[in-house]
Fold:
Amino acid sequence: MNRSERIKMAAGEWYTCLDAELEAMRVMARDAVFEHNSLPPRQRGNIGPALKSLLGAVGEGARIEAPLHCAYGFNLFLGDGVFLNAGCTILDTAPVRIGKGTLLGPNVQIYCAEHHKEAAGRQAGVEIAKPVEIGDNAWIGGSAIILGGVRVGDGAIVGAGAVVTRDVAANTTVVGNPARPVKRG
Structure:
C-alpha cells in the first residue's frame, strides 16, 4: 500500500516534504500566520482567528505575540497561560506540546524536522519529523533553539541563546551550545 507523505510524516518516518498535499497545508498555515502577524493587536487578541482555528489546541489565556512563523500549525498544542514572545519560529512537522504556564522568549526556535544526512536525500526533500515537548511552567530564554526529539521538563529553564540537543530534566537550568546543566542561583 502506498502511504501519503503526510501519513509518513505523522508516523515519524522518513518522508518527502516536496509533496503537493504538504505544500497545500503549509500554504494554509502561511495564510493564517500572515493574518495573525498583520492584524492590529486589538483586533488580533491573544491569537489571530485563522491561526487559532488551525492550531492543534489552545489553552485558556494562551498568547502569541507577532510575528510568528510555523510550518503547519495543526501540530502546535498550547496549554493554559502559555506565552510566545515576538519572533518565535516553530517548524512543527511533528507535534510540539507546550505545557501550561510556560513562557518562550523572543526569537525562540523549535525545529522538529531533521534533514537527510546524504546530499541527494536533502535535495530530494527527504526529512524525518521528531516531536518536541515542553512541560508546565518552563521558561525558554530568548533566541534559544530546541531541536526535534527533545523533552524539556516541568519548571526547567533554558538560558537565552542555548541550543538544546538533549532532554532537559524537570527543574533544571541549561545554558550554552550545546546546552548543559548549571546550578540555579
Observations:
- The chain has a mean pLDDT of 97.
- The longest helix spans residues 20-38.
